């Protein structure tokens, strides 16, 4: 019986102390959200201070630096290969053929008049001539729609 009375007394004392604790927190302006935020910040700091976090962070940083260096080297190698390719005999031959074709187009404009002119003018006159040959009121789907 005495043990049960002690337990009951201790429960009452604990409840009174918890009530007093809550009142003090309220007077100090400590809210549950503030406590949660403080606990989170403390936990975040503790985690960042841990050896595992520091090692992981260092590993990721090193991996990022190595990846950046590798991509830089890859870009340099690709640029070098393009430069080599541009200087190759095959590319030179292709380039000469394109220049020859452009030169021929400039000399023989569509319609034969006004030889010479810029490549843009040749393209423009070709497009203009092509537009004149195509009827403007014709819709490409018209024939397929009439078959039904």
Automatic annotation (TrEMBL):
The keyword Coiled coil applies. Residues 123-137 have a biased composition (Polar residues). Residues 139-148 have a biased composition (Basic and acidic residues). Residues 102-148 are annotated as: Disordered. It comes from the Eukaryota. The keyword Cytoplasm does not apply. One of its GO terms (cellular component) is cytoplasm. Keywords: Coiled coil. One of its GO terms (biological process) is positive regulation of apoptotic signaling pathway. Belongs to the TPD52 family. PANTHER family: TUMOR PROTEIN D52, TUMOR PROTEIN D53. This is Tumor protein D53-like. It comes from Scleropages formosus (Asian bonytongue). The lineage of its organism: Eukaryota, Metazoa, Chordata, Craniata, Vertebrata.
């Amino acid at each position: 019986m005495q043990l049960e009375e002690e337990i009951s007394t201790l429960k009452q004392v604990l409840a009174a102390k918890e009530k007093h604790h809550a009142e003090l927190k309220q007077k100090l302006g400590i809210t549950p959200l503030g406590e949660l935020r403080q606990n989170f910040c403390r936990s975040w700091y503790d985690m960042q201070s841990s050896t595992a976090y520091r090692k992981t962070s260092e590993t990721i940083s090193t991996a990022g630096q190595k990846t950046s260096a590798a991509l830089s080297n890859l870009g340099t190698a690709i640029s070098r290969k393009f430069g080599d390719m541009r200087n190759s005999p095959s590319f030179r031959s292709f380039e000469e053929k394109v220049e020859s074709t452009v030169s021929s187009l400039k000399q023989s404009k569509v319609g034969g008049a006004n030889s010479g002119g810029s490549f843009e003018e040749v393209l423009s006159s070709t497009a203009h001539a092509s537009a004149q040959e195509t009827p403007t009121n014709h819709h490409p789907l018209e024939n397929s729609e009439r078959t039904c």
